Amino acid sequence: MKNIVILTGSGISAESGLKTFRSEDGLWLNYKVEDVCTVEAFEKNPAFVHSFYNELRPIMMKALPNMGHQAITMLQQELPEININVVTQNVDLLHEKADNKNIYHIHGRIDECICMNCGHVLKTLEDVKSDEICPRCKAMGMLKPNIVFFGEMPQYMDEVDNMLAECDMFIAIGTSGVVYPAAGFVRLAKFHGAKTYLFNLEPCNNSLAFDKEILGKASETFPKFAEQLINEIHKA
Ligand code: APR
After folding, report:
1. How far, in Å, is the centroid of ligand 1 from the Cα of 132?
2. 0.85 surpassed by pTM
């Protein structure tokens, strides 16, 4: 085995106290996607969109990783000969805080903004107002959260395509399999011969695409799997 791709969704961060999107009390039950996570929403009311992310940012920045994130670090440290990439739909930084390596935020990150005028990406840990000035091109009111809105192209898609074409094992953790292109990654990996595993609290939209579905809390199910995988590979 040479390559493992791990796709994570908001479910891996649930036990760190962060809301998911579609479970009960999920973010999308209290906010309309079209009001806070589309280009049109941002054009129509940038101040409201910024306020949504300004509210989310300190909560996410305070959160701590859980055993699910830490099990990824254990895999990467115990299996250095295997290329283990972490493709996350999450904009929180729990993979970084757990010291995971090779992290690809395909839906962006909560601690950055991007200038829609010049493309400059800057760290933003404090509240962002809608009339901020870009430090590079000095344009005013052009800073948007570096979050991939619905209708925008996810980031790192070329890198992800290459990973899936080479991957021997594809693991999805805490994602409902509702949003594409991420929900289609499992089929691409399978097409290229990967073994596919889903770790989720409940069966999800694309469950049937996985060879194995392990239901339960990711902080319990995934560390157990990771330990078994390490033992198997060390013994081989
Ligand atoms: N352990 C494992 N899975 C869990 C846990 C847990 N402790 N808690 C919740 N889950 C599962 C839920 O059962 C659900 O299937 O995590 C999944 C989260 O699904 P969503 O809320 O739809 O979140 P996600 O799949 O990350 O959404 C994908 O949609 O709105 C966009 O950009 C947003 O990145 C997000 C994308």
Report:
1. 32
2. yes
